[in-house]
């Protein structure tokens, strides 16, 4: 069996999530996005094998970031990714995505797709750096506090 554990910057490592990570993942998600997800939804995702999640954590297993996928047959969707603000800009997000690519090598998934807000340059640069290219745009897709919805970019990257 392949070891599902990867090194990450800042003394962190990456491993599959556990149900007990729901609190930490919900907090990070709420901190990172204008619209959080109900904790019950996150609990359900962490139990569902169709939404595999990797967490970046420290030696005491305190969660500093996560990436949640949804398996859709040939495609796999990056549902969400977030890194604790204290750990951003150090390569943790990139390490999480690379771990996802490696973890998916033994599965039938052929392509990773995602949606990202056009007003989120940090995420767009991360995705471009890791080989994602833009497929299309969805205007007015994301709610914003000022009432002016933001465009979503749909991006994809071949796996394997
Ligand atoms: C997007 C996010 C996950 C990136 O995580 P991270 O650990 O900070 O990213 P990394 O340090 O691995 O950065 C990798 C690349 O992304 C780009 N990047 C990351 N942060 C950036 C920033 N603030 N501004 C510009 N580019 C940035 C850079 O190209 C960087 O590569 P480089 O360091 O070689 O220049 C993190 O900023 C975050 O949690 N944001 C809030 C949630 C979010 O927006 N998620 C994405 C939703 S689609």
Q: Let me know the largest β-sheet.
A: 8 strands, mixed
Helix segment count? Answer: 4
Oligomer: single chain
Q: How many whole angstroms does the radius of gyration measure? A: 15 Å
Q: What class do helices, strands and sheet pairing give?
A: alpha+beta
CATH architecture of the domain at 6-114: 3-Layer(aba) Sandwich
| Strand segment count | 8
Main-sheet strand order equals 1-2-3-4-5-6-8-7
- List all distinct small molecules, including ions and cofactors, that are bound in this structure: coenzyme A
Distance between the termini: 19 Å
Provide mean pLDDT, rounded: 96
Q: Which ranges are low-confidence, i.e. pLDDT below 50, for 5 or more consecutive residues?
A: none
Estimate the strand proportion: 35-45%
Q: In CATH terms, what is the fold-level topology of the domain at 6-114?
A: Aminopeptidase
| The named CATH superfamily of the domain at 6-114 | Gcn5-related N-acetyltransferase (GNAT)
Shape: globular
Order of helices and strands: EEHHEEEHEHEE
* Helical proportion, percent range: 25-40%
CATH class annotation of the domain at 6-114 = Alpha Beta
Pfam family, one: Acetyltransf_1
Organism: Devosia nanyangense
GO molecular function, one term: N-acetyltransferase activity
Protein name: Ribosomal protein S18-alanine N-acetyltransferase
What does this structure look like?
This protein has 160 residues and is an alpha+beta fold. It has a domain at 6-114: Aminopeptidase (3-Layer(aba) Sandwich). The protein is built from 4 helices and 8 strands; from the N terminus they run ββααβββαβαββ. It has helices spanning 22-32, 39-47, 92-103, 121-129; strands at residues 6-7, 13-16, 53-57, 63-72, 75-83, 111-117, 133-142, 150-158. Strands 1-2-3-4-5-6-8-7 form an 8-stranded mixed sheet. Helix 1 (22-32) packs across helix 2 (39-47). The chain is globular, with a radius of gyration of 15 Å. The site of coenzyme A has 19 residues, from strand 5, helix 3 and helix 4. GO terms for molecular function: N-acetyltransferase activity. It comes from Devosia nanyangense. Residues 12-160 form the N-acetyltransferase domain. Pfam families: Acetyltransf_1. One of its GO terms (cellular component) is ribosome.
């Amino acid at each position: 069996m392949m070891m599902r554990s990867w090194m990450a910057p800042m003394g962190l490592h990456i491993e599959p999530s556990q149900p007990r990570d729901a609190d930490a993942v919900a907090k990070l998600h709420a901190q990172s996005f204008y619209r959080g997800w109900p904790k019950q939804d996150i609990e359900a995702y962490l139990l569902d094998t169709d939404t595999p999640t990797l967490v970046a954590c420290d030696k005491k297993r305190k969660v500093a970031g996560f990436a949640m996928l949804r398996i859709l047959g040939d495609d796999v969707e990056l549902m969400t990714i977030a890194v604790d603000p204290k750990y951003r800009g150090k390569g943790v997000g990139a390490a999480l995505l690379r771990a996802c690519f490696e973890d998916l090598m033994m599965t039938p998934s052929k392509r990773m797709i995602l949606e990202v807000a056009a007003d989120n340059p940090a995420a767009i640069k991360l995705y471009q750096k890791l080989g994602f290219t833009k497929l299309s745009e969805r205007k007015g897709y994301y709610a914003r506090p000022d009432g002016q919805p933001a465009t979503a970019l749909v991006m994809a990257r071949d796996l394997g």
